[in-house]
Amino acid sequence: MAQREYDVLVVGSGAAGGMAAKVLTEHGLEVVVLEAGPSIKNTDFLTHAMPYDFPFRGRGNPRVIRKDGLLAAREQTPFSGYYTKESEHPYTNAPTRGPDKPYKWTGRSRILGGRTLHWGRQSFRLAEFDFKAASIDGFGVDWPFSYQDLAPYYDKVEDYVGIQGFKEGLPQIPDGRFLPPFAYNCFEHLIRKAAARKGWRMTALRTAQLSRYHRGRPPCHYCGSCGSGCDIGAFFSSIAVTLPDAAKTGNLTLLTDAVVREVVVDKEGRVRGVSYIDRKSKVERKVRAKVVVLAAGTLESTRILLNSVSRFHPQGMANGSGVLGHYLTDHFTAGQVIGVLPELVGSKIRNDDGKANGSYIPRYSNLGTRHPKFIRGYAIMVKGGSNVFPRHADLIGGFGAGYKKRIKELHPAVVRVYARGEALQIFDSYVEIDREVVDAWGIPVLKFHYKRTDNDYHMLDDAFQNLQELMHEAGAEILSEDKSLSAPGRIIHEMGTTRMGDDPRTSVLNQFCQAHEISNLFVMDGGCWPSSACQNPTETILAIAWRSSDYLAEQFRTGDL
Amino acid sequence: MTAKRIRRRDALKTMAVGSSGLVQLAASVPMAGSAAGPAAAAARGAAEGWKPGFLTSAQVELLATLAELIIPETDTPGARAARVHEHIDLVLSHETDQVRKTFLEGLSEVDRLSRVRHRKAFVRLSPGDQEALLSRLADPEADQPEGGTGHRFFRDLRRRTVFAYYTSREGIHQELGYQGKQVLAEWEGCPHPGHHGDED
Description:
heterodimer, A: alpha/beta, seven-stranded mixed β-sheet, 11 helices, globular, B: 200 residues, mainly alpha, elongated
């Protein structure tokens, strides 16, 4: 049967895949997007459901938790499989050393829109200095492009996506084209004053939530349910924004339930499409395209490349350098302190979680001066107030009427601060294919080898002390303290395994996410980052995908692909 | 699976009727040892037709009594009216054998202590004696002479009780007066100028 050949085949429909689909179709290219999971609409979400609407109050059946993990068991999701089931999507870990924790590959989603359906919405630009971190402190490599190269795309992303926030004039988190900011809650004002006394500027988390009508989308209605998906598309997701725009061009074909196994090559070793397994029937099929863009998420894209073994690519596709799968990082949480602010104890219960975000103290370490023990830095996240569930109830003593009263009094006064740091990318943290284990579709899975650096632990020491000092400065009564690093993977900001660079001997991709070795293969997700900064990555992923797609379209037009 | 969306006002109206009836019924029914006894009727309470999936009716009554001690009725409903015991039973019925065994041992320990000290089952003790006994379990130091399982059980029971209560209609709306999940036209933020900094 003669098969249609698309101009571009995009694997994945999350932040990067959705953006690639939008930009490429608007350039007039015929694009097919393959998504491993089912389709979904905004109206499928159970946005305003309450815990008591579900038999297990949203948390899920312990039986399902044991089998498929906490997220897959969540009941606020519109259907089973919204978060991937661990029993169907296994992975393995090599033994870890010392206090290091094994990689926790969590937050995975196989569904149209991918993780944009339930992301944290936090949107920051990287700093100018983040792109040349190696030149500043000597560790690792610089990015193959500068802030100035990406800045026009940050502008475009902000104009397009809609991001609310305050302009602060801080070089660590450059200002952009923001929608009007959401006002602070009580606890945020109080922490902000305490931070200022320590010489730090606190700002509201910049988030991709609309504070007013924007490009045909309605504003946030402050229901605080973002985690369950937005029924009106007021926060950015592929299904609310990029994929509908791609569809409008008439150039988009969407293929859901298509689990990609590998990228296939012709007899010259050039990419000619992918093979995938139908999620439901488990029948294997092929789709042909002149160009393939992997945007399945850092680790899934890497897995596809490592599984794409041929006589041209015995070590996996685009892996002549031997760095494919290496330099894996995830941001980490470096310590957490929970306390209560005396001014707010017993105050009126307010709708503090309505805006569904908190505040942020941007990185202050290693700016100008050098910390003696660690390089790079971390930001402090500030969360709190009256949320739906009083998590502090477990942190105080007692029982009875006094206990019940105390839970209520403390409810509006609780503040949680934690640090979010940059983990250094090292060659020895990597993934490979585990030849012993396959997933539910017969595809070999990833095996993780994760090592922390001393830098991570030194950063934890500093961050934890500063979290304590911040809470002390705010006059908080401490309820709990945790001085530990989160398990790698836990923050769901995986990066680095298909790193970009100018030198094909030490990197997989060039600065436009194009494989050095195969000109008609691109990898546009977070895997390309050669260092991870400490800002939440999605806005930068969107900007890079836009820039790379513009480049791809131009190359396509001039016949260079 | 479908999520029922209930208007808050309607939910509160329903709860107000249901909860007071349940508390009176539970308080007036004596403890019994078999599933067919009056204790089972008490446990069924307002949820007509509810049957425990894992616990015996005697265990349900003991659990409901303990949960009510942890989150008692005040000017708002307590754990029993919020049917915390039903939720804990549901979760336990899907837990591992080890988790269930540990939980049952904890319940038995409470009754054992009660019989050693007062020669009565825990549910038959006066409220004051019940509270005194639970206070010992709640105190990690005081519990040591009895072997130490009691305090671990207390922590586990309190965690389960808190979760079930504060995810119930009673806990979320009547006790905490949760303001979220609304459809608002504007976000006003903190209305207290005293909280704001000089530059705000």
